[in-house]
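Pasting as-is:
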Amino acid sequence: MTTMTASKPKAISSAYETRLFIDNEFVAPVEEVIATVAAGTAADIDKAVKAARRALESGPWATMDAAERGRLLFKLGDLVEKHAEELAQLEALNCGKTIRDSRGDLAGVVNTIRYYAGWADKIEGKTVPVRGPFLSYTLRQPVGVVGQIIPWNFPLLMLAWKWGPALACGNTIVMKPAEQTPLTALRLGELAREAGFPKGVINLVNGMGETAGHALVIHPHVDKIAFTGHVDTAKIIQRNAAETLKRTTFELGGKSPNVIFADCDMDQAVDGAFHAIYFHGGQCCTAGSRLFVEEKIHQEFVERLAAKSRQRKIGNQLDETTELGPMVSQEQMEKILHYCNLGNQQGAKLLTGGVRRGSTGFFVEPTVFDNVRDDMAIAKDEIFGPVVSVLPFKSYDEMIVRANNTFYGLAAAIFTKNLDKAHRYAKDVKAGTVWVNCYHIVDTTTPFGGFKMSGQGRENGEAALEHYTETKTVTIKLS
């Protein structure tokens, strides 16, 4: 675990005991502390914003040509690749992700940085044919100082998704990493400095959402907020950002429907449903947590899924053979177990899991609930853990109404051999990403974002560039 401390005089930190006081003794905490990091305040955010504003308006970044911005991003991508194993191990410690998944994330980080490095000198305006003796054209210019707030489940990948387009477009950044997982962001800051990014272009302020995050959102000299996280936090950000009318984009949660038809490839569908919910312990906004299974194959399917779930190897995330590491925090583990208890209380059939594994570490066993009703808490709320709700269905028309009966709309999937059915579902389901006979396939080149309360705007691909540029029209009278 990481801990946060506000700045304090050395005399206090060295003269006073800082361990826990239990049973009349000072003792170390039960959970191991892997790092202690500073907790920024509003004053630290203000300092970072001023640095970002100076870099935006004066100095080398302000006059740097687009190709040079791209060169710096390419250099950063090379450095991340060079230090990929170090960063993967740090990420595994940072958030509990398995070492294999962390390595996969690092490949995505490198791809994202290089993708946007290539975009830097290709962000173009247009000439516009207007009536009369005028020449009109558009410029695409940086939004300005952008505040970026990232979550704890994919710390490095979400950093890359936000740094890439912002820097390619010439913006400067003040980022607040999640308070649970700041370590890899700080290391990327070091690598950005080594790559040659000028002072003030990239600023990282650790801290809590209520203090550092709030100060970033309300700061009058921040031009845009990009946030990935929980919908309730996004509502607070949107209200607070309204005072300065700063631009906002949100990538939020989901309760994604994963639909299994009787005409599917059964082996492929079981593997797909398994990956959909258990990748990174279900701590994914796109997790396939609502599993709709056609009644004709329901019994066989859930039995196979439950059997496969029981075989998932849980343990130390740095062990090469581990398939499921710990949840990110005790708070998150307790939230997941609370929903498991609700599932039992509300009448769902627990096939496997639903409990903590061991007494140390924040491990939750892979969990399958069968015969779940749409009105149960485990079917409605985003649990963000290795818990899947199986919902049997009889017909397509019944299923699509139920699949769309949610406030969320981030992702969806279908497993079927019928191409017409797949295309129909892709059109009918209200979600920003739809997978057919696969799951969790996210590429830097394709737009990512949600419908309804799953967000506003898009990340990745060319679509992200729209949120980090302003369009300016210039009109010149011709003689």
